[in-house]
Amino acid sequence: MQILVADDHKLVRDGLKPFLQELDPGADILDAATLSEALQAIEGAPNLSLILLDLMMPGMDGLDGLVQIKAKVPNIPVVIVSGYSTRDHVVAAVQSGAAGFIPKTVSGTAMVNALRLVLSGETYLPSSSFFEDPANQGAQPIAPKPAAVPPPFDRLSRREGEILAQLVEGRTNKEIAIALSLQEITIKVHLRNVYRKIGAANRAQAVRIALQSGWIMPPVIN
């Protein structure tokens, strides 16, 4: 497997490599810092399976660079990895051929889960909690738009939904317990209920079901 990481920040490229090797320990990780370098790397990568693309690197000119890349490798999934994400950015990227959009603020484990989903042929979109408000200089999350909770997630209690959201982010039971000020045994009990309600056999399956369904934690309605 060959994976191309196209980002003009070397720190980002190097930081992603350990997580990408979780997808395949023998993966050949290719680097590119500009659009032209990315296009050259694609030409010399016969076993390319995945492309991670930063929309802001030199030569991109918005989504035009994505369109150029998809024209060269229409059957290779391209995932946008960006530090700036609004709903409009995400929708436009997917309409231009992206197989997913991952904010740089997600945990490494959540990113790996999302990339596994993309490699299985699905499209990954971020939770609404990651969308930023341009009017507030990208500093404040936009409240998710009200939407009906899809089955079987409508069977989850508020607490169970909170725990599932933490699970999708790749957190351990101990980390979830600390974040929610609960006992670890309580987290285990809630997770058993979550698995039963959504039809999951284990932790990994619960994450996959949540990602594939596009489920997001609904906002609290006051």
Automatic annotation (TrEMBL):
SUPFAM superfamilies: CheY-like
Record keywords: DNA-binding, Phosphoprotein
Response regulatory domain boundaries: 2-119
Residues bearing the modification 4-aspartylphosphate: D54
Sequence ranges assigned to domain HTH luxR-type in this UniProt record: 149-214
Stretches that traverse the bilayer: none
UniProt key word Phosphoprotein: yes
Recorded GO MF terms: DNA binding
Biological process per Gene Ontology, one example term: regulation of DNA-templated transcription
Signal peptide: none
The protein's name: DNA-binding response regulator
Organism this protein belongs to: Paramagnetospirillum marisnigri
